[in-house]
Amino acid sequence: MQTMTGLLGELMPEQRERLRSLGSEAYFDAGERIFEEGDRADRFWILHTGSATLDMHVPGHRNVVFDHVRHGELLGWSWLFKPYTWTLGSQADSPVRALQFDALSVRVLCEEDTELGLALNHAVAAVIAERLQRSRARLIDMFGPYAPKDIAAGLL
Fold first, then answer.
1. How confident is the model at residue 66 (pLDDT cuts 50, 70, 90)?
2. Per-domain residue ranges for the chain?
3. Which residues contact 130 (CB under 8 A, 6 or more apart)?
4. Angle formed at CA 103 by CA 121 and CA 14, multiple of 5 degrees
5. Over the chain, what HEC string results?
6. Which of 47, 96, 119, 133 has the least CB density, counted as fewest CB within 10 Å?
7. Residues 141, 66: contact at Cβ < 8 Å?
8. d(C-alpha 10, C-alpha 33), whole Å
9. Among candidates 125, 151, 127, which has minimal Cα distance to 139?
10. Backbone φ and ψ of 47, nearest 5°
């Protein structure tokens, strides 16, 4: 029996299957934008293969990449919180194969099955907490006392 990891691994088998039933396969070529900061967040993905960057627009500079999403991980959580707008952007780092979910359908499922909704919210909260820690570490690397001066100076 295969052990489930990532977001789906946090759900009970019945919950996992109910959620999976709403998913469809999605593919992105390396370099393809998956979503843009500020656009409507109406879907999310769980990556099967490949990786995607998470980036943020910095006025006057190119987008700053601060994290990567990999196999089994959730890509996108803005679909869960009003106003359902992407707070970041994302691009396929390599060819990506993922399970894609329609956000509205998942939110309706969570309202109908409150146990699944609570479990999914807890799982997404854990992802957010982990990403915040990784982002914090990245910021320390970029702007801490031993950061390369050209990187820190270029972003200010």
1. confident
2. 6-142
3. none
4. 55
5. CCCCCHHHHCCCHHHHHHHHCCEEEEEECCCCEEECCCCECCEEEEEEECCEEEEECCCCCCCEEEEEECCCCEECCHHHCCCCECCCEEEECCCEEEEEEEHHHHHHHHHHCHHHHHHHHHHHHHHHHHHHHHHHHHHHHHHCCCCCHHHHHHHC
6. 133
7. no
8. 28
9. 151
10. -75, 135
Residues of the chain with pLDDT > 70, as a percent, come to: 88
6-142 maps to CATH 2.30.30.100: no
- Tell me the CA distances in angstroms from 86 to 4, 34, 61, 81, one per residue in order: 27, 11, 19, 10
What the block records as the tokens of 68 is: 């990567």
Tokens representing 60 are 């006057």
Residue 47 near residue 7, CB atoms below 8 Å: no
Q: If you average pLDDT over every residue of the chain, what do you get?
A: 88
Looking at the predicted structure, is the pLDDT value of residue 152 above 70?
Answer: no
Q: 49: pLDDT confidence band, cut at 50, 70 and 90?
A: very high
- Is there a contact between 6 and 45 (Cβ–Cβ < 8 Å)? no
Sequence-distant (≥ 6) Cβ neighbours of residue 72 within 8 angstroms: 5, 6, 7, 8, 9, 46, 47
